[in-house]
């Protein structure tokens, strides 16, 4: 018996090395990226990548399709922008305000949504997020159609000037890495294991005595809070918070990014977000309508790579050889 | 094989009981006025033709369905209005007719997930997965007790049907239930597995109550102390196997002849 378990551990070791190498290369790329790319573009990419990963915590690891995550993303952007601009709090605290605001919003929306499953769950999240959208449209502190403009980036810890693009980039990268690390920890924790079991067979989880609703609500709030981290960060990067980020199109976009990259993989959504943001950026100046192109890309991906780009790689021969075997049913 | 005698000689106490259990689906009554007493250290079989309402009774007892009428008592507590996960935490654990495992988890992980909650290792989102290694000892013991030690690292979806059922029993036992409800535990199993599972159930029933739905009558005859026959949602006959099998109404129900008793 102990023999079989030892075998299992030995089998895991070489993929661990491969994955560490991949991780190192990825981090090095991100550290050097501002030398080659426009920092604001990179920061936008990181914000959306974090957003998609936070969303995937719910879709990929708990099996809940939320169609209202824009409320947390855009909501946090408003909260952070307001805190930094009107209360004059430092940027790091402003982001925390966004995170807590989004978590609170997540607790309220989640409380109602988790009572239903499947498409009903998605519709309730959509409806409540739309309510929040109209609240943002009417409320005084969001300044309606104008949004909150010229948000100061401020000084990190009172010393580092974030108006400097390079400083801001490394700040965003640090927050991004922390966010991903938190998601990784949640997924690979005893709690994450229970989430997986709920995704796999909810009835069985209930019969094992798990109060599935509480676990789902906890996952929902965590996902909302991490989405808030991305949203607050974005408000500081662009120095404004507008209705775009709370609109339902944003909720749709994050679903697109996650599916493109590969649901249920940690880094898939990062690639998905990268692809969508890059397309949007390059096509913004061309004559082609962006939505049609992203729509076509999405259709091609759904038809050809059902598991998403990263999901397909994990399942390919090379991926399996490198030990990225990925088990998720579609 | 003779019916196993319980470990203790005292009069068996009732651990799970239902009174006047009824469930309507629209105009159809799936279960009607069912009284049931499940005793500690006894194997109780629930048999009856297809559509007799056996699984509905299971769903009612475990509160996956809410009864239209009637009361259910578990270990002296009224659970008629209790949520299913709470019922499971109180010690009434069930298996399912369609084998319920977590298909993309390994055998070891399936058992560990079941062990997590009773061992208070379920809500920690800040701890690494290796924290669950603390459960390996217990998990191995359970896996060995059902003879799955060779498949410990296999993914549950890759197991044969019979092995999946055995795994489900192991995860059910992981909760150390006081009352075990098994929905057709031997269905679709090979001959050898049937013998092994019967042995496991016999062993398990020394310290807990078992209520099982089973179609294999020879298993029922050798394993069960008490048999309840359901037909069209109502209790047709009750007693030990010998009594029940002699009952002409039961024979009619099982032979499927049209004559009415």
UniProtKB/TrEMBL annotation, chain A:
Cellular component annotations (GO), alphabetically ordered: plasma membrane
Alphabetically ordered keywords of this record: Cell membrane, Membrane, Transmembrane, Transmembrane helix
GO molecular function: branched-chain amino acid transmembrane transporter activity
Major subcellular site: membrane
Pfam families given in the database record: BPD_transp_2
Chain coiled-coil ranges: none
Compartments, record wording: Cell membrane
InterPro entries per the UniProt record, alphabetical: ABC_transp_permease, LivM-like
Membrane topology: Multi-pass membrane protein
Transmembrane segments: 16-38, 45-73, 93-112, 119-141, 168-187, 217-242, 254-276, 288-309
PANTHER family for the chain: ABC TRANSPORTER ATP-BINDING PROTEIN (PTHR30482:SF17), HIGH-AFFINITY BRANCHED-CHAIN AMINO ACID TRANSPORT SYSTEM PERMEASE (PTHR30482)
Protein name, entry field: Branched-chain amino acid ABC transporter permease
Organism for this UniProt entry: Sinorhizobium medicae
Lineage: Bacteria, Pseudomonadati, Pseudomonadota, Alphaproteobacteria, Hyphomicrobiales
UniProtKB/TrEMBL annotation, chain B:
Domain of life: Bacteria
Gene Ontology MF: a single term: ATP binding
Pfam families xref list: ABC_tran, BCA_ABC_TP_C
Residue span(s) of domain ABC transporter: 16-257
Keywords (A to Z) from UniProt: ATP-binding, Nucleotide-binding, Transport
Organism: Sinorhizobium medicae
Segments passing through the bilayer: none
Protein name, entry field: ABC transporter ATP-binding protein
CDD domains: ABC_Mj1267_LivG_branched
GO cellular component, one term: plasma membrane
